[in-house]
Specification:
Blueprint: E1 2-6, H1 12-23, H2 33-36, E2 46-51, E3 54-66, E4 69-75, E5 79-80, H3 89-103, E6 108-112, H4 115-118, E7 131-132, E8 142-146, E9 157-161, H5 171-185
Parallel strand pairs: 4-6, 7-9
Antiparallel strand pairs: 1-2, 2-3, 3-4, 3-5, 3-9, 6-8
Bound molecules: coenzyme A.
Length: 186
Amino acid sequence: MVIIREENAADVSAREALLDDVFGLERFEKTCERLRAGRLPANGLSLIAEINGEVVGTVRLWHVNAGGVSDALVLGPLAVAKRVHSKGIGARLMRAALNRASLAGHSSVILVGDAAYYNRFGFSASLTDGLWLPGPVERERLLALELKSGSLSRAFGLVKATGDWAEVGTLSDLVGESAEGLRKAA
Ligand SMILES: CC(C)(COP(=O)(O)OP(=O)(O)OC[C@H]1O[C@@H](n2cnc3c(N)ncnc32)[C@H](O)[C@@H]1OP(=O)(O)O)[C@@H](O)C(=O)NCCC(=O)NCCS
């Protein structure tokens, strides 16, 4: 049975292995990665698909300001393990993510992907005419969905990452740790 649920810390390595498998390491060169790198995803909007305890799908959404629209999100990456493609898992992840984003009050969702897949969820390139990303993107793959009708009508400009920064050790933490290590070694 497929379970769609929120991701937790124990899922991270399985999610990363799945993304490596599906996209390869080039995934870190994608323009959308510039909107995600170093940031935390939106609260409650990292989802996992699981079969018998095994992670087989992932989707996450990230806070952005989309050309002046401050409560927008960027979706991605969406990935499902090859061995379970075409069983509706991608669609379930998408619908769950979009429902949660809507319930959380977000106005719109942007992504880079194939319109032939994302049209079915209501995404369209016609909503992104006034937007650009911090890197190259094929215009026909820059898609958006309004969760609140008309929310992107005045969107114009760069899509910028606005999520909280993920916590990393500060330089003073590192210096403090090595000083402590030296003290113990002495
Ligand atoms: C895209 C993806 C997440 C879909 O997952 P899934 O669980 O197989 O999706 P669903 O079962 O909901 O839908 C499958 C249908 O979508 C179609 N589909 C999948 N990718 C598609 C694409 N890029 N363009 C058009 N249709 C696509 C399949 O052919 C299938 O059609 P069918 O139902 O007529 O057989 C999965 O194929 C995947 O991980 N692909 C590689 C990573 C990727 O491309 N991610 C999206 C970023 S653009």
